[in-house]
Design a protein that fits this description.
Secreted protein; 0% strand; signal; mainly alpha
Length: 195
């Protein structure tokens, strides 16, 4: 098979599963009872210490994208939902890194032929897998809360590298890809946690 054809086929296959094959949530109930996790150490300026946000260090080469206003608003929505769920800054780092990988922080609707099954929203959650209705999973607060409920059920998630914690919730076809966003996610949490 010639290399151009092979690259085209692999590119199409990659688009098909790029958002990951998200499994259903571990618990369908998305109501929250805030129980504050242990807080991440903060610096004197009131911003979280980025080293504390990355307790296991970053894995591999890190990626970075410039964010537009919509993406920044989605970062703030993820942080607000994390606080509302009673979870700390590290949980926000995991959630934002996951959304960076799954959607580049864009609240994606159905993409037609480019869609990964019926995955939608910031976390590319699937209605057919029990994450919620299309309206729910394309609501940043709801989808973040659903992701965080799954994360809370991952025994020992705090002691795992970010990519393993995210993968346990998301069940992606590309489990190691979450790691590349950890530094940018930590920087975003440090920048917006108290804004």
């Amino acid at each position: 098979m010639n290399s151009i054809l092979r690259k085209s086929i692999l590119g199409i296959a990659g688009l098909t599963v790029a958002g990951g094959l998200a499994a259903g949530p571990l618990n369908h109930d998305t109501s929250t009872t805030p129980v504050r996790d242990a807080a991440v150490t903060t610096q004197a300026a009131g911003k979280p210490d980025t080293a504390a946000l990355i307790p296991h260090g970053v894995q591999g080469t890190q990626s970075h994208i410039d964010l537009n206003d919509e993406q920044t608003a989605n970062v703030k929505a993820i942080i607000a939902a994390t606080k509302k769920a009673g979870m700390d800054e590290r949980a926000a780092v995991v959630a934002i890194a996951t959304a960076l990988q799954e959607s580049k922080l864009e609240n994606l609707g159905h993409l037609g032929d480019r869609n990964d099954h019926d995955s939608q929203g910031l976390f590319q959650q699937r209605p057919s897998s029990g994450w919620g209705t299309v309206e729910q999973i394309t609501d940043p607060e709801y989808s973040t809360t659903a992701f965080l409920k799954g994360l809370k059920q991952v025994d020992g998630w705090r002691d795992m590298p970010l990519t393993k914690a995210a993968q346990t919730v998301q069940v992606s076809a590309y489990p190691d890809h979450y790691a590349q966003w950890e530094q940018q996610a930590a920087d975003l949490v440090a920048q917006h946690w108290n804004s």
